[in-house]
Amino acid sequence: MKLENLTAWALNELSAEEQARLEAELSNDPAVQETAETTKDFCTFLTRELRDESMALTSNQRAQFTTPKAPEIAPWKDRFEPKPLRWWQRPAIPMAAAAAVVVLGSTVTFYINQAPDAVSAVATSESEKIRVQVQSKRRDLATPPQSIGTPPAPKTKPVSASTAVASIQLAQAPAAPASPMPMLASADVRFPGNGPHIGSGSIVIAGTGSSVSSTSTFTSDLAPIRPQLGQPSNSESYTSITENALISVVREPLSTFSIDVDTASYANVRRFLNLNTKPPRDAVRVEELINYFPSSEPAPDADSKQPFTVKAEMAACPWQPQHRLARIHLKGRDVAAGSKPSNLVFLVDVSGSMNSEDKLALVQRSLRMLAERLGENDRVSLVTYAGGTEVVLPSTNGLKKADMIDAIDRLKAGGSTAGAAGIKLAYEQAVSGFIQGGVNRVILCTDGDFNVGISDPKELEGFITEKARSGVFLSVLGFGTGNLKDRTMETLADKGNGNYAYIDSVSEARKVLVEQMQGTLVTIAKDVKIQVEFNPAIIREYRLIGYENRLLAKEDFNDDTKDAGEIGAGHSITALYELVPANLPPGATPQPLVDKLKYQPEAQQLAAPAPVKTLVSATNEALTVKLRYKEPEGTTSKLLEVPLNDDARAIEKASPEFKFTAAVAGFGMLLRESSYAGQLTWDAVRQLAREGKGPDALGYRGEFLQLIEKAASK
Amino acid sequence: MPSEPAPMHDAEHTFFLAALERFERPLIRYAHSYTSDLEEARDVVQDVFLKLSQNLASLDPDRLAPWLFTVCKNRALDHQRKHSRLIVMETDSFDHEASTSPRPGDDLESRETAATLRSLIEKLPTRQREAITLKFISGLDYKEISQVMKTSIGNVGYLIHHGVQSLRTKWQEHEANPQCSTESALAL
Fold this sequence. Notes:
The complex is a heterodimer of chains A (714) and B (188).
Chain A: H1 3-10, H2 16-28, H3 30-50, H4 59-66, H5 74-80, H6 89-105, E1 107-108, E2 131-138, E3 159-160, E4 183-190, E5 202-206, E6 213-217, E7 247-248, E8 254-258, H7 264-274, H8 286-290, E9 308-317, E10 320-332, E11 342-349, H9 357-372, E12 379-385, E13 389-397, H10 401-409, H11 419-432, E14 439-446, H12 457-470, E15 473-479, H13 483-495, E16 500-503, H14 506-515, H15 517-521, E17 523-534, E18 539-545, E19 565-568, E20 572-581, H16 602-607, H17 610-617, E21 621-630, E22 638-645, H18 656-671, H19 682-691, H20 700-712
Parallel strand pairs in A: 11-12, 11-14, 14-15, 15-16
Antiparallel strand pairs in A: 1-3, 2-4, 5-6, 7-18, 8-17, 9-10, 10-20, 12-13, 17-19, 17-21, 18-20, 21-22
Helix pairs in contact in A: 1-3, 9-10, 9-14, 18-19, 19-20
Chain B: H1 10-35, H2 38-55, H3 64-82, H4 92-96, H5 104-122, H6 126-137, H7 142-148, H8 153-176, H9 178-187
Helix pairs in contact in B: 1-2, 1-3, 2-3, 3-7, 5-9, 6-8, 7-8, 8-9
């Protein structure tokens, strides 16, 4: 036994496993045990004597930091001045000003038409402040960029507030009202002012031409401006997530969604927990937590026809023992590094806003890491954009590390942003060095203040979509902070058949660019959609956990023009369904969300798909998972079907991967204070995570166990 | 007025307040281990948080602790260079400060113990001293210490283990022969 471990044990620095192991050893050896106890006593003594809590800043010194600065106009001015007006700001200013005037009276009524992106503008007045922030996101998953739908009918609802206005940010429509894109907007309104005169309302924005509609609620936050210590982030704004509800299989036997390989939410939750604070509910996106962890399940062979394996498993639901939990897992084929020649074009945003440690400096470190991994078949070029665009490094062989590193080191931030020109130049570089059958990819590194161009952004998206068809894909690496811009970057990556990763630290850069480099660079299947059909004879209700913003209409599944997510080499994607069995005794389930129909006898409701019913009753299948995907260069989709029987497995008998996924989902649900969390406890989550941890070669799961401890102590 | 905290956005301010809450006292104690003077330690830590407020946007949140403690150490060393260092502990000043303890004697005794322990820590080899200070005075965990000291967690375990063993031996010597040790503590 290493004596250092005794000291670490005395200081409670061992992991739970190491601690258990060491304590087992101690119980066998009284002499060592005594040494350990003495060390522990002495450490306690040292801590008690040396940690003098009376030493602190004076209250004046502390007040200097805790007193909030009044939100002045200055920061907004800063935000506007360095860059030229963006395409969406121009029509917005008069409209925003008009809105401000209306609000000043006593009531504001505003119409949110088809806003393709968020807009902010500022108006000022005296004392009280209302800040309205409307973030809108194009629901491009459900609609291809080329399709022309009917322009959505504006639906409006007045929001009243009898207060004066200091600043308003609101989304407004761009100049072109003929915009065909169906919209999904989410809104978040904060009223930091005090007093009872704060109103709240709700606004419904629905898009036609898309089957997806959404309800967003304006919430008024009566908390004081200054966030309370220990309850941070009540001022950070996140797009609110409404958890998927239990859905009756009889009414909706199909559940359809697009896969999602994003992992940003986990990095964000980790940031909060490491600061000993609880993350805000809406920062926790369960599917992104689950998909952060590469699974240990086998990938298909390199020569197998299918690019990924599909595995489905069902066991008891840990938080609702009478319910079942189904896990659907996709594991992408591994592609050995260097097996495909790559033609990479790094497009680096070097505008003034990138000038900080966690932006350009981190970009440089990330690119250096990636440069190290390239071989003789690879070619790299480096394009920058700021006020102008420049090819900093023309296409260069992957072995010429010195040239690459030199070009990376010379990057310097400064100037304004000409994003559209940059991306065009980058694609030109990629096309001119196109490698048939290889990896052809533009890698955009930006803080998301990616000014998508002075001209119409759709033109740029169309451009990216077209290039994606030609075989040049786009990856977006986000740096720095900012939620709204997240969405822009995600959209661009979706359009470009690429992936979007958020790099908050060198370790995250290593994960994305070194450990999972092939997943980031090599797409093995695109437009991957999942549709699950449930058998009403076995399953009464289902609930998809997470993927709230990836839902598709059932018709989209067979429609090859509908865009969906991509799988990279070696990626693991997992979805969980909580299922209510059909044979639960009455009263065992909580009140049904919808009463039984009055005018349709139950038998008839069940018998609705009459011919199918005879088929279904012949089988014990609880559900069938259907997948559609396209080869990276393909245009027509292929279909996979995997049926799943319920073998009445208890959670204890489930596979380790099943347990770990359930633990991560439970972790997310507890952090979200989900109403579906049932009898879930942190102890149960910890137990599942330990049992499912497996070999954990990269240490991600060990880190997760530590996060459980931090979250449990909140 | 260059010492104005930079204007912060809400999320950053929240982050900043959480950092202040978590690290204010650990940093003061850490600075105090260099300055041996509470006022100076406060000035140092005030500077640290001022600098944090100006660098929030560019800071990697995962590396907050090492960043704070590194800045704090540099500032404390600057202070030491500027103000000639007080070498002898001013035991007089103990009596002038208001005591919150019901029996002032307890407090004094405890302060003497702490002062003795600090003097013993001072005599450890540099790396052990640094690790012990960060662990017991500032209360960081091994991982944070490894980041501050730019070394592995294993090495931190090694340094702390040997530091603790050595402190324990010295403390036992002091207990056995208090006079000698106290003198050396005051003479340091």
